[in-house]
Design goal:
Elements lengths: L1 H21 L4 H10 L4 H25 L5 H24 L2 H20 L15 H5 L3 E6 L4 E6 L3 H18 L4 H10 L5 H26 L4 H21 L5 H25 L2
Antiparallel strand pairs: 1-2
Helix pairs in contact: 1-2, 1-10, 2-3, 3-7, 3-9, 3-10, 4-7, 4-9, 5-8, 5-11, 7-8, 7-9, 8-9
């Protein structure tokens, strides 16, 4: 049991580190490994959801301090993700585990397609005209990009579309316990036109509140194991704090390449598990 806890902590540390860099959420990496260690899928999802709160807090605090996180945009988008997370967690308790694997793969595939189209673009169009609703919400931001050596100013657009779309991300987060950072980042960049670094940082901020909402359902269902959740939380928090120190120094292209590499791996892994599960 001691060895198992050590393995879980180390694995979670790597997952938290990688998740904080790309805004994906460490749960997307932790869950497949937990199932390999013999943890039932639904319990892995439930405990991962609990630890996402710690993972998000570890990196989000650093990103807010460095002004990478757009807090005002996060608060608006969380309205939709919280509702989706509660509904999604309820669905997970009711449906067979086999279908969750395929939903996981399909969900990630949509994000992979969207981000791939932007690989040739180094930075978003910050001069894009802001619509009336986004302007009314005052959704704009600025941060210092260390890799570019200058301040980046941007305005968020199409908030009336991005908000409801984030409800789908919340639904996936509640069902899969992964934070749904892949879909959140895709919406931030493709719909709201946020720069990649601000998108990743804001995604980490939103993940914590979304996980808090979904975890209440799993706690009530009795799927949460305190020892397992605590081990994942310790490793993921340390890893996410390490990742948050590295993100400002990375180029946007590197972030996107890393994001796509992780997506490809997860899609293949989840399809295989769905096919081979009883």
């Amino acid at each position: 049991m001691y060895l198992d806890v050590v393995v879980v902590v180390l694995t979670s540390m790597f997952a938290g580190f990688l998740g904080s860099l790309i805004g994906l959420g460490g749960g997307a990496i932790v869950i497949p490994i937990l199932t390999l260690l013999g943890v039932p899928l639904k319990q892995a999802i439930a405990n991962s959801m609990i630890t996402l709160i710690a993972t998000s807090s570890g990196s989000a605090s650093a990103y807010v301090r460095e002004r990478l996180t757009n807090v005002k945009a996060a608060m608006y988008l969380e309205i939709f993700t919280v509702i989706g997370a509660i509904v999604g967690a309820t669905i997970t308790i009711l449906v067979p585990s086999k279908y969750l694997y395929f939903f996981f793969a399909a969900f990630l595939s949509s994000s992979f397609y969207g981000i791939k189209r932007k690989m040739s673009v180094s930075t978003p169009n910050h001069e894009m005209a802001q619509d009336r609703f986004s302007r009314w919400l005052e959704l704009e931001g600025t941060y210092y990009d260390e890799s570019l050596g200058k301040e980046v100013n941007y305005k968020i657009v199409r908030a009336h579309i991005g908000g409801p779309a984030m409800m789908i991300a919340g639904l996936a987060a509640g069902m899969l316990g992964i934070g749904a950072g892949a879909f959140k980042v895709a919406i931030h960049e493709l719909v709201l036109k946020m720069p990649p670094k601000a998108s990743s940082a804001t995604s980490n901020f939103i993940i914590g509140m979304t996980a808090l909402a979904g975890s209440t359902v799993f706690i009530a269902s009795g799927l949460v194991n305190v020892v397992l959740a605590g081990s994942i939380a310790v490793g993921a928090t340390v890893g996410s704090m390490m990742g948050s120190r590295l993100l400002p120094k990375m180029s946007d292209k590197t972030i996107r390449l890393l994001f796509l590499s992780v997506l490809i791996y997860l899609i293949i892994q989840m399809v295989y598990k769905g096919v081979t599960s009883p």
